[in-house]
Amino acid sequence: MRRYKSNYPGRGPGLFGRIFQSVLRVSAYLLLPGACAAFLGGCGEQAISVDVNVIESTDEYDWQYTPAFVGEKDGDMQIDGVLSEQVWQDRNWLTHCEKDVSLRYTTAFTQKGLYIAAVAEDEHMQWNDKRAFMNNSSFRFYIVSNTAEAYFCFDCLNFLVDQEDSSCRQQVRFEAEAARSVNEAGVPTLTAEFFAAWEDLNYTVNPETGMPDFARIVPMYRYVEGFESADNAFLKPAFAEVDNNRVNNTLLFNKDGYINVSGDEAELGNAANGYAKSDGWDLSGLEGGQDGVRTVRTTAEHGQAIFFSDIESSRYAYSVDMKLAGGINDTAPSAGVCDMKSAAEFNCMRIAGAPYLDSGRKALTYNTLDFYETLWHDVLRGDRVESVGSDIINIRVIKDDTR
Length: 403
What we know:
Layout: E1 2-8, H1 15-31, H2 36-41, E2 48-54, E3 94-98, E4 101-109, E5 113-121, E6 138-144, E7 156-161, E8 166-168, E9 175-182, E10 188-197, E11 215-223, E12 233-235, E13 251-254, E14 257-258, E15 268-269, E16 281-282, E17 297-298, E18 307-308, E19 315-323, E20 334-342, E21 345-352, E22 363-372, E23 375-385, E24 392-400
Antiparallel strand pairs: 1-2, 3-4, 4-5, 5-10, 6-7, 6-11, 7-8, 9-10, 11-12, 11-13, 13-14, 15-18, 16-17, 19-24, 20-21, 21-22, 22-23
């Protein structure tokens, strides 16, 4: 460390002298009130010696601090996108396959906050420009506060991360990194890690554990065919919704990862091609009850999707009983099912009507709709007149592409 000595007379100092003398006088006045009068009284004609310390490039300099826009994470966690921490072992993973891209997501909770791990294996993976997340292969984490009942921008947060950058639309404190590599088969792979404190995510925590019981997340991957390509799209499980008031149309994660994991041998769950079922299913009845009937039950009041895990066919038949939540005399009674080939191509069989008892019409309208890419197409429409009303709607579907 070098040491400089600055001598200047009280009269006519240079600019540095005037500024430094002024600061020195103020400092003396503030810090040394007992000596102020003697110091100032005698400084008019005397030279003042001041020691200035300059840090050399070879000097040791170690300053630990928490950046302003990053919450305090756990000491054993490093957000580098590599997923090398022990915490990522033995997790429950949400898996999803679409457009030949394999995706996996899981979480870890601590009292510090929420951690997310993400993995994408994508033959088309590409990076095109700085902070151009819509044109870069990237992850998007849509995190909804556990107190939110409707959409509000600071309760429904959006985080983006690619191999170079990360961003949050709401400028919330967070940390995220992604790393690009190739897997054993030579497929380009993007792994990412994310952290944010519970307070920054507007989450309330269980006072007994210091953590929430669950987190509502819609994890997505930006599939990129090319820069500004119309085929660029976010890939996510069916009926997982973002940026609207259906804040429960998310996927639930807890301290062990994804909550609603499908069993490896389960007959119903993710599709045979890897397309993920939606959240909100009770799968405890899949082994069969006392009557031997195997069932799955919904646990949410919104659109849901579940698939036969070992069947991928264009010829099938099934029957579904659905109880109308508002009854047959609801303001707009409706129920329906979807057959999905992909997120952009599926059919919908729907029954809807006016209040059954009050309308005097005593009829329900049935629709068969085909959805391909961006538009619904009415395939079949008609009325079914009933002699009695019932809160149970039965829909039976027979599909045969060979006819």
